[in-house]
Amino acid sequence: MSVSIDGKVHRSISVVKYGEPFPVAKRSIERYIESYGHVLIYIIELGQPKWTERLTVEIPMKFVITDIINPSKSYNDSKKRNHLKLIKE
After folding, report:
1. pLDDT at res. 6
2. Is 75 left (phi over 0), alpha (psi -120 to 50) or beta?
């Protein structure tokens, strides 16, 4: 199990297009999440896949964010509003 950077377990529905690989539980993958940016996530659990009309599969999943690779503008703005600082010893 990996450590979450925000202490939360997130839930989402992953849309897999025809020909793309399916996500695998207990593995890390890179994703883009609008409120965080380009992140590395660790998938805890996958739900039951469901076919859609557009040759895609929707897979519910639970995951934690383990690293922010490239933060989005909204994430950087929220850090400034919260007055978070990095303290070094």
Report:
1. 83
2. alpha
Sign of CA dihedral 54, 42, 6, 84: negative
Kindly calculate the radius of gyration of the chain based on its CA atoms and give it in whole angstroms: 15
Q: What is the pLDDT of residues 23-54, one digit of tens each?
A: 999 999 999 988 889 999 999 999 999 999 88
**Nearest of 33, 29, 59 to residue 43 by alpha carbon:** 29
Helices (H), 1-89: 73-81
- 60-82 in b/e form (b: 16+ CB < 10 A) is ebebbbeebeeebeebeeeeeee
Q: Distance between CA atoms of 75 and 36, rounded to whole angstroms?
A: 5
- Higher-pLDDT residue of 82 and 34 is 34
Nearest to 60 by CA among 22, 18, 11, 21: 11
